[in-house]
Amino acid sequence: MRRVFGKVRVRAAVGASLVVALALVAAGTALLLVLKSNLVGQADLQAENAAREVATQIATGKPYEKLDLPDGADRPVVVLSEDGRVLAAGEDVRAVDGKAVTERHPPAARQPDDDDDDDHEIKPGEVEDKARLSGGTATVGHRTADYRFASVEAKDTQGGKAVVRAGAPLSAEREAVGSVRTAMLIGLPCLLLVVAGVTWLVTRRALRPVEGIRKEMAVITASTDLSRRVPEPGSRDEIDRLARTTNETLGALQESVERQRRFVADASHELRSPIASLRTQLEVGIAHPELLDAEGAVEDAVRLQNLAADLLLLARLDAGERPADSRIDLAALVREEVSQRVGDRIAVTVGELAGAEVAGSRSQVGRVLGNLLDNAQRHAEGAVRASVVREGEWAVLRVEDDGPGVPPEERERIFERFVRLDDARSRDDGGAGLGLAIARDVAERHGGTLVVREGSVFELRLPAA
């Protein structure tokens, strides 16, 4: 079990690390893309500003040889004529996009624009409103690097057109992106180690009560002491509910085992009397045949047979045997049962017999009716009555007698196995106290109930078919 918990902790730590890793990779990728886009946008803006400054000088009529061009590698600028001749270039600018500044350059391509028409042609002394942005390379001095270029057209006061192409370096963008990428590559493994460690510790702490439950269950299994209970952490979470449910299961199991033990003890006690009596009578009959009480031996054998049948039926019910799925007419069942009881101490009268069918085992429901009538016969003063009524979706079978009735405090106890009230024992003709217990078990297996009402009215309620 410890290996299982260890595996759970490992899976939790690995799972959490993978989730965090995926989240961080996605977030880092998005961050790098946004950072790169912003830095490229800034470079475009710087290049456009530099191009417009030079274009403005051209529009004001300043000669090309006297243009104030930016110096150095930060702002390489080249001014081209309409036919691609180099009119001016920044200091130390040797080449742009691999073309030397002394060579002819192709005119800068205009970006397509749906609104472009002749009305947008710039006039002398004007600068183009929209700059064209692109990437490229420039050689300044002896160093070639990548740049973002902005191209802007301008016309001098004489109507001569020139294209100013100014660049802004991408070195800052690359340095920033590289720094962030390096920080992420270093920080991500460290963060994953922290997440895995924290998850391991948290999972270990969370599973500690489960380990306590496991140890206690192992002790209970080894000792078969069902009175023990697992510890409840009291944390009001899933583990606490698991512990409470486990204790409830142990309680139900303990009650079931104790009930089984009582059942075995009571069954042994009940079986001892008829067996001992029958053996005594047979031994006397062997030694003195003239003294053999054949009728008493037969009664003891019948009593033993009935008790064995009751115990067998209870065992099948406890094993969860499902009743047969057949339709039973309760009114016909009552008529049949009453017609066969010709030797009863008190004749059974039949009351209302409404048409009501139920689903289940005919033999078991008939056993319930027989047990209820037997119980009424033992306690009645002079009248026993059976009836069947229909109440909504329920079929109700009532058996009542004019006896003293069952005290309210004993109305549930009489349905326990091998229970006979003191008054009943004085009138009992050999019952073992299983009839009412069997009747209730059968009623519950058929989805119904069996209760005592008004002291001496037994009511079997079953769902109508």
Notes on the protein architecture:
The structure is a single chain. The protein has 465 residues and is α+β, with helices and mostly antiparallel strands. The chain has 8 helices and 14 strands. A hairpin with a 2-residue loop joins strand 11 (384-391) and strand 12. The protein has 3 domains: 1-225, no CATH class; 238-318, Signal transduction histidine kinase, dimerisation/phosphotransfer (DHp) domain (Helix Hairpins); 326-463, Heat Shock Protein 90 (2-Layer Sandwich). Strands 2-1-7-6-5-3-4 form a 7-stranded antiparallel beta sheet. Strands 9-11-12-14-13 form a 5-stranded mixed beta sheet.
Can you lay out the helices and strands and say which pair or pack?
Blueprint: H1 2-59, E1 77-81, E2 86-89, E3 93-96, E4 99-100, E5 132-140, E6 143-155, E7 161-169, H2 171-223, H3 238-287, H4 294-318, E8 326-329, H5 330-340, E9 348-353, E10 357-360, H6 362-379, E11 384-391, E12 394-401, H7 422-427, H8 435-445, E13 449-453, E14 457-463
Parallel strand pairs: 9-11
Antiparallel strand pairs: 1-2, 1-7, 3-4, 3-5, 5-6, 6-7, 8-10, 11-12, 12-14, 13-14
